[in-house]
Specification:
Radius of gyration: 18 Å
Largest sheet: 2 strands, antiparallel
Helix content: 55-70%
Order of helices and strands: HHHEEHH
Number of helices: 5
Amino acid sequence: MKKESPIYEQMEEWLIHQIESQAYREGEKLPSIRAMAEQRDVSTITVKRVYADLALMGYIETIAGKGSFVCALDVPKLKNERKEQLVSALQEVICSGKLKGYKDAELMMLFTEALQREENR
């Protein structure tokens, strides 16, 4: 069975990419929650969560009664922060594997296997 990430995570990644690639530019107003939900064929609850998460991450700012706007971004810094979060998560997995007795070479093989499985999803 294929396991996909939740819709809100997929949409967050998509919108982050849109902002980082400047499809949505600094200061630009994003579609309303309802309009974005219709455009992306998701629920308004999903869009509300995505907008809230992106606001916490510093990508957008929501102003009551006016809408959500793309913040001034230091894209390299944001990408680096996301990379560091991923490295941290991988370090936790490595630590868990070592506690279970796996050696570095075995962990590399498992990582490669996981990548291949992901490609075949």
